[in-house]
Amino acid sequence: QVQLVESGGGLVQPGGSLRLSCAASRSIFSFYEMGWYRQPPGKQRELVATITNGGSTSHADSVKERFTISRDNAKNTVYLQMNFLKPEDTAVYYCNAYRKIGPARYDYWGQGTQVTVSS
User: Fold this and answer.
1) Rounded to 5 degrees, what are φ and ψ at 61?
2) Which helix H or strand E contains 107, and what residues bound it?
3) Which of 21, 63, 71, 81 could be stapled to 67 by a disulfide with Cβ–Cβ 3.0 to 4.6 Å?
């Protein structure tokens, strides 16, 4: 059973920074890709950023130049550094990891961490 545990959320003022962490219960090399998603109040979950097991990254246009995804393989942890936060970044942030076995995809999710950007 794979467990993903997020931490680092909280309340921050506009323009501030937060770093989210996602600790996995197994080697993150076993996942084809890991990523961060978010779900703003009353909206659908959306992709924020991804990182492959080879280290390639992708960020949503809405967070480019402000958010950075990274990984520490020794700690089995993926991070999301969030700078210049805006009120519209307020959401529950979820860590995702998936494995590919043949054509099948197996997704794993964390429990989510709340990020609130408000003055």
Assistant:
1) -55, -35
2) strand 104-109
3) 63
Query: In 4-90, at which residue ranges do the beta strands (DSSP E only) sit?
Result: 4-7, 10-12, 18-24, 33-39, 46-52, 57-59, 67-72, 77-82
pLDDT 10s digits, 103-118: 999 999 999 999 999 9
Residue 28 has pLDDT above 90, yes or no: no
Which of 21, 26, 23, 22 has its CA nearest to residue 1?
A: 26
Give me the chain's average pLDDT, please: 95
Cα dist from 17 to 27, 104, 117, whole Å: 28, 37, 10
The Cα–Cα gap between 36 and 21 comes to 10
- 3-class DSSP state of 15: coil
